[in-house]
Design a protein that fits this description.
Elements lengths: L4 H19 L26 E10 L2 E8 L7 E7 L13 H7 L5 E5 L11 H15 L1 H4 L1 E11 L1 H11 L20 E5 L14 H9 L20 E6 L7 H14 L3 E6 L18 H16 L1
Helix pairs in contact: 1-2, 1-8
Length: about 300
């Protein structure tokens, strides 16, 4: 199936926005209870709706918000759960609007979340928030006409790190405090684009290594690294990384892939030849695979593991 140019451009714009935010930071177990998907007594009233700024959890007295983009028909739908990038210190859920217009016609609910950011919060605040958001979705699966057993996470750069950490860690990590604790925060698939997988390894540009130490704390770098949590019960991963990424080196994508394969987890690593942190070639030369081909790989992965 070929990707229409408009679709490919929409997703590429999201990836570039996430990655550029990281490049130039500005300081400032299975569900224990799964909703029964019984038909609603009234017709579903959110077809085609963009439900913006919905509070999903209140953490340290601060409401955390998500945007939800619904398809026009059908359901219960699988969920693509998007986590924005931005060095864990900036960025916004609104950048997923293009992702919503791309994926909702293909039968996915798109959910994009904000989460607490450094310097106002430090690890594990970020991962606690995204885990609470997943539990919120399961708690409200019937109301939102979603399938609680088909939730896939995706993110680029810092968002890729959090998507990978969400996918690899389980309740034993201790990050499932807060609301809706009777539900699981596990997801069924992960797409990680240019995400740091081992925070103990060097990150190369724009003071990012200093930000990591300050946002996570040096004693937490290993436990906050997704590779630390790779285990046989992890969901399938699609990892996409630029060969010439000058910020989050290819060693991160390779390390995540290796740790998953060693654990027996289905994983695919797409290395973008000549690609930088934003997957584009620094000198403007062609990349392999192309952006259209990368987008198609994402669609195929979601089709295989969420549909």
């Amino acid at each position: 199936m070929m990707i229409r140019p408009l679709i490919a451009a929409g997703l590429l714009g999201i990836l570039l926005l996430s990655c550029s935010a990281l490049a130039t930071p500005q300081p400032t177990p299975l569900p224990t209870s799964t909703p029964t998907l019984t038909p609603s007594p009234t017709p579903f009233g959110l077809y085609g709706v963009s439900l913006l700024n919905k509070t999903y959890c209140t953490m340290d007295g601060e409401p955390q918000k998500m945007d939800i983009y619904f398809p026009q028909t059908g359901g219960p739908w699988p969920v693509v759960f998007y986590i924005h990038g931005g060095s864990w210190m900036e960025g916004d859920k609104a950048e997923a609007a293009g992702l919503g217009s791309w994926l909702t016609p293909q039968g996915y609910v798109v959910v994009s979340v904000n989460y607490r950011l450094y310097p106002f919060a430090r690890f594990p605040a970020m991962i606690e928030d995204v885990k609470c958001a997943v539990r919120f979705l399961r708690a409200n699966a019937v109301e939102y006409n979603i399938d609680p057993n088909r939730i896939g996470a995706m993110g680029a750069s810092a968002g890729g790190h959090l998507a990978a950490l969400l996918g690899a860690s389980d309740q034993s990590a201790g990050w499932d405090g807060g609301e809706y604790t009777e539900y699981s925060s596990r997801v069924q698939a992960v797409i990680d684009t240019a995400g740091p997988s081992d925070l103990t390894q060097r990150l190369d540009r724009g003071g990012l290594e200093t930000i990591v130490v300050m946002a996570f704390g040096r004693p937490n770098l290993e436990i906050a690294s997704p590779i630390t949590h790779a285990s046989p019960d992890d969901p399938p991963f699609l990892i996409i990384h630029g060969e010439k990424d000058p910020i989050v080196g290819l060693l991160h994508g390779q390390a995540m892939y290796d740790s998953l394969v060693e654990a027996g987890v289905p994983a695919q690593l797409v290395i973008v030849q000549n690609g930088g942190h934003d997957l584009k070639a620094p000198d403007g030369s062609p990349t392999t695979p192309t952006m259209d081909e990368i987008n198609q790989a994402m669609l195929d992965f979601l089709e295989k593991y969420l549909k």
